[in-house]
Amino acid sequence: MTNALIENAKAILRRNDKGSYTVPTHGLYPFQWNWDSALSALGFAHFDERRAWREIETLFAHQWPDGMVPHIIFHEEDKGYFPGPDVWQTGRPTPTSGITQPPVAGFAVRRLFDRVLDRDLAERKARALLPKIHAWHSFFYRDRDPDGTGLVAITHPWESGRDNSIDWDAALDRVPRDGLAQFQRRDTDHADPTHRPTQHQYEGYIALVQAYRDAGWDNRRLHAMAPFKVVDPGFNGILLRSCADLADLADLLGERDIARKSHDFVTKSLAALDDLWSDRHGQYLCHDRQTGAAIESASVGGLIPVFAPIPKARAAAIADRLATLARTAEYLAPSHDPTDPRFDAKRYWRGPAWLIVNYMISDGLAQAGQHAMAARLKLDSLRLIERNGFAEYYDPITSEGCGGGSFTWTAAMVLEFLSAQDQAA
Ligand code: DGY
Predict the structure, then answer these.
(1) Residues labelled as active-site residues
(2) Using an 8 Å Cβ cutoff, are 282 and 322 in contact?
(3) Whose CA is nearest to atom 7 of ligand 1?
């Protein structure tokens, strides 16, 4: 069974490989997506190390001059996706979107560097990527945290990667929608509409794109004018882990300036992250930077910070929280608490389980010594795959595969979970 899973996972990566980048899945997502690529590179590393590095190099070849790495790179024309380059109008040589995504590349590059066999190649590639990834991290702490709080804000739900999470409901509802141009969604041509965000949510997403486009995609100004500004513990946890990994990598490669600045980011941000902890919920919560209030929504975004070097007691509390969630979800980790009346088992980030999330949480738990829960996440991930193949996400109660099929990063995570060096075992 294991060998068949490994061969199926590799076949999916090859099928979705466009040469220098990988599509998440054909049809629904026909371009290069930022965090999909970084995590998918880990899958390629199991059978083609050069191709793994290439995936991340292609992503950073489209970095903006201010350091931002866009969430989509539109390498080819494809009318089957909305919103395409004509909507974003970012004016980049190769069209890109104008927002970013969870900065997991620092973690991915460190993991590749530690693991791959071709050491000369690894050193060359990591050394070249290091300043680019650092520029991305610097962009966040400069332009998404202009007051120097230590925590960065996302200015669009898509930046979180958890597009339609319950976390964003109230903040997205407040986004002005007047002047919204008519549009035709294409995602529901490719996936079951009941698994996707609602029309009302899409209107909010596109209203934000229009507002930032009208402001000329000027990242120096966007944080101040953004009608949506939320501090997501999951996003900040991923950034923190990438900064910590980049600091270590820079130390190893003798890049002292990047190492020092990255260590400073980690120290400051780790202290600030603790302000998002909720004793009542036993996890971290989002913070709405516009209202100044905590967002009462127990989503998986509040568990992802275990991926970062948070205090051991917090990691233990997150393992306990997962044990509580396991009483109502047959498969960990639901993207939202099933006991919340807003939970929706099949609708994208309002309930379903995702393998990439399981991988990050499991990795963090293992590093914090929470091996039993780390192993449970791995086991549940493999049970999901065995039952329902390489889906985009899964109903955490029934295991049904939802969203797109033959999904690249799901396949990459299976290769990771089944690899000999599995940190969660
Ligand atoms: C989509 O199109 O659904 C994406 O998640 C936006 O990046």
Answers:
(1) 163, 392
(2) no
(3) 158
